[in-house]
Amino acid sequence: MPRPAFTLIELLVVIAIIAVLIGILMPSLSGAREAGRGVVCSTHQRSLAIAMTAYANENKEFLVGPNTSGFALQAGKAYTPGKSSPVQDWDFVSPLLGDGLNLPDDALAKFQEICMTRLRCPSNAVRYTSRFSGPALPMEARGEFPITLSYLTPAFFQLYPAGVVFVNGVRVEQAGNSEAIALPRGYIPRLDRVGPFPSRKAFAFEGARYFNGVGKGFDYSTVTNAAGISGSPQGNFSSRGPAFIGGGEPYLREGTKPSATFKQVSLRHAEKMNAAMFDGHVERLDNAKSADPTYFVPSQSRLTSPGSTWFFNLGPKDSPLMKANAIID
């Protein structure tokens, strides 16, 4: 006898059931995939925090940055080939993990490697759209620009207060008087000086510079920055932090909500960012927490220009933190 076949209606019902099941499962699968990417990202940052502690222990508690590991470049000296040599004076990645990750000795190849493979957040797919200064990276010969650096270090921890020009006869990088934050008097860029609660101070966070608001893209430099966080040409490894508005900072908010750019380059994981704290743990900061300057400046820093910072989550306009000379702990 002839074998009975499925009718058209039966086939359509089966297809509809499969489509419904896929629709139910896809968000879960997508969420699980993004959760896995977030774990990889937090592992990267935890490695940086652990290496930072080891560096400080070996260097009298001083932090990696322009006044220590990057001082030679900051002073205008030539790059020294080596896996752990910083490619820019603000490059905190190479001195900490260059040997462990077997990064290239060549500066350009190393910068490209950090951007494209090693220490790239799996959720970061934003590319630079232009090169501001310096020689071309190897991949530019193929007509490609690299993915933006995934992690930055807050600049204010790495500097001396304004007015401190020389330390032991050596010229140092300082936070200029035009900055929205005045560092505490006598501050030194050392691990033991960031504050009494290092678990509330971020050593690294998810972000990228430098953002061109007109061109809606990011540019990068392959040469060092010898003129502080406001100088030119600028490096790409540091930032004031997502609590601040400033030239080249992409941490834009539309009212109280993060902009699409901010979500792309920082709030990559379900609108949260990973931030490695000075005590070694990694914390997820949402839009509100990322606007809190407490994470990104040393304790007892002073607010000098309320109009230059984002404070939407810190209360009304009459909040003490909205007033000049407010102390940020």
Task: Explain this structure.
This protein has one domain. Helices cover 24% and strands 15% of the residues. It has 6 helices and 15 strands. The chain has helices spanning 8-58, 71-74, 93-97, 107-116, 260-265, 287-290; strands spanning 130-133, 151-154, 166-167, 170-171, 181-182, 202-206, 211-212, 217-221, 238-239, 253-254, 257-258, 272-277, 282-286, 301-303, 327-328. With 329 residues, the protein is of the alpha+beta class. The model is unreliable at 310-316 (pLDDT under 50). It has a 5-stranded mixed beta sheet with strand order 9-2-6-12-13. It has a 3-stranded mixed beta sheet with strand order 1-8-7, with no helix packed on it. A 3-stranded antiparallel beta sheet has the order 5-14-15, with no helix packed on it. A hairpin with a 4-residue loop joins strand 7 and strand 8.
Please state the CA-atom Rg, rounded to the nearest Å: 23 Å
| Beta strands, count | 15
List segments where confidence is low: pLDDT < 50 over at least 5 consecutive residues. Answer: 310-316
Beta-strand content: 5-15%
Tell me about the biggest sheet?
Answer: 5 strands, mixed
What do the pLDDT scores average to? 86
Q: What's the shape? A: globular
What's the order of the H and E elements? HHHHEEEEEEEEEEEHEEHEE
Tally of separate helices:
6
Read across the widest sheet, the strand sequence of neighbours is 9-2-6-12-13
Distance between the ends: 86 Å
Number of domains: 1
Q: Give the proportion of residues in helices.
A: 10-25%
Structural class: alpha+beta
